[in-house]
Amino acid sequence: MENGLRKPSETTGQVISCKAAITWGPGEPFVIEEVKVDPPQKMEVRIKILFTSICHTDLSAWQGENEAQRAYPRILGHEASGIVESVGEGVMDIKKGDHVVPIFNGECGDCPYCKCEKTNMCERAGVNPFMTVMVNDGKSRFSCKEGKPIFHFLNTSTFCEYTVVESACVVKIDPDASLKTMTLLSCGVSTGVGAAWNIANVKAGSTVAIFGLGAVGLAVAEGARARGATKIIGVDINPNKFIKGRAMGITDTINPRDFEKPVHECIREMTGGGVDYSFECAGISEVLREAFLSTHEGWGLTVILGIHTSPKMLPLHPMELFTGRVIIATVFGGFKGKTQLPNFAKECMQGVVNLEEFITHELPFEKINEAFQLLIDGKSVRCLLHL
Ligand code: NAD
Ligand code: ZN
Q1: Cα distance between residue 100 and residue 91, in whole Å
Q2: How far apart are CA 387 and CA 145, in angstroms?
Q3: Can you give the pTM of this predicted structure?
Q4: Using CA positions, which residue lies closest to atom 31 of ligand 1?
Q5: Distance in angstroms (rounded) separating the CA atoms of residues 290 and 295
Q6: How many whole angstroms separate alpha carbon 47 and alpha carbon 169?
Q7: How far apart are CA 333 and CA 327, in angstroms?
Q8: Nearest-atom index, ligand 1, CA of 331
Q9: 73 preceded by cis ω (within 30°)?
Q10: What is the average per-residue pLDDT within 204-215?
């Protein structure tokens, strides 16, 4: 054993038996079971997961919020870090022993989207919540002891000691970086910081409102602070989030439950007409409308980061856009994962973003149900599970 990794020679090309946290039905407690993980096939990578955390998207999937996306048994989890155990045929840029972060929104590098600077979508490996199998052969690489296949989740399935992913969904990280904190780059922090930098392009001296202060919203705050925004208003119905928020760039806080008037009116009064940028990080339609209305007429920009249940339409009338307010959404903060994340990781190592602050709890993998409860209860920002 080396770094918790079995000697590669012992496992390369072999089926690995290991522990996974399996979801058997919507909201049913995770069951830690032994599973079989097949070797990586063409253009795939098998990773020994060392750390995984829990994002609200895992919570929504576990609860089966979007019925059409339900599939069981399934291995959820998409925010993680680990070490490459082996690679499949044709993988050139990743080798065994590499320190890596899996990304749910991959970058194949070859498709029209990957070749276009305007988007971080990817035809082959972009995020697809309906995808439950590998793109190569339409099959799963996971099975129960009795042989029943277990479905994949968001290209990553990190609630397992070993996982198989498309090489387009693997980002190599500087081996000097702490894998513990790099876990956050796998989803929440990249999404939030990227929304501030790549999508809104927040300017120094500007005003910002962030709705929902989980890891994603707090990452927006970190990103806006790093860009020199002077007023960063944090909106949350859980006042406990304000303590963390103030340590991470939030300058003003609003609990909507403390006011009779709508939040956007408070924000417009505080900012002389509205903020330059607002970010919706809760995945709630009414919150999105408040975020939209809290920006300044003429130039205000609202960025949607929250995942909204289906069926849902934008909570605004088309004519409301004639006020000059703009609305846009982002997956993974607009980062092209493979090409841009290594550099973002370096910036984090230099302290541009304080990653440590996001990890509020750490637990052994076996306590995954407890970790989910911490997120449900609004107690954790990110709970890091040690595999
Ligand atoms: P989280 O659960 O940690 O945080 C959500 C926060 O919203 C909580 O602090 C909660 O108290 C707050 N909230 C709930 N109702 C509210 C309301 N009415 N007004 C204001 N705040 C309210 O979640 P997270 O992991 O930070 O994720 C946030 C959202 O972003 C989720 O919808 C998640 O699915 C989504 N997400 C999107 C992407 C992407 O690529 N776009 C990536 C990751 C997560
Ligand atoms: Zn996520």
Answers
A1: 14
A2: 20
A3: 0.96
A4: 306
A5: 9
A6: 11
A7: 15
A8: 40
A9: yes
A10: 98
Task: Give the burial string for 232-270 (b: 16+ CB within 10 Å, else e).
Answer: bbbbbbeeebbebbeebbbbbbbebeeeeeebbebbbeb
**Are the beta carbons of 355 and 348 closer than 8 angstroms?**
yes
Helices within the chain (DSSP H only):
8-11, 56-63, 179-182, 188-194, 215-226, 241-247, 263-270, 285-293, 337-349, 368-376
* Token pair 């929104």 in the structure block, residue: 105
The residue nearest atom 32 of ligand 1, judged by CA position, is 306
How many degrees, rounded to 5, is the angle at CA 344 between CA 169 and CA 122? 30
- The dihedral built from the CA positions of residue 92, 115, 169 and 51, taken in this order, carries a sign that is positive
Terminal-residue alpha carbon distance, the chain: 14
Q: State the DSSP code for 40.
A: P
Tokens 């928020």 appear where? 245
List, in order, residues 6 or more apart from 198 with CB less than 8 Å away: 330, 333, 334, 335
Q: Determine the pLDDT at residue 5.
A: 62
**pLDDT band of 4, cuts 50, 70, 90:** low
**Matching residue, tokens 């039905």:** 25
Measured from the Cα of 332, ligand 1's closest atom is: 40
**208 φ/ψ angles, rounded to the nearest 5 degrees:** -135, 140
301-304 and 326-329 beta bridge pairing = parallel
Q: What is the DSSP letter of 104?
A: S
Q: Is the peptide bond before 29 cis (omega within 30 degrees of 0)?
A: no
What 3-state DSSP class applies to 39? coil
Per-residue model confidence as pLDDT tens digits over 23-62: 999 999 999 999 999 999 999 999 999 999 999 999 999 9
Instruction: Report the amino acid identity of residue 42.
Output: K
Nearest-atom number in ligand 1 for the CA of 256 is 19
The candidate with the shortest Cα–Cα distance to 106, out of 35, 167, 21, 179, is 167
Q: Which residues line ligand 1 (CB under 6 A)?
A: 55-57, 60, 187-188, 191, 211-217, 235-238, 241, 256, 281-284, 287, 305-307, 330-332, 375, 378
116: amino acid identity, one letter: C
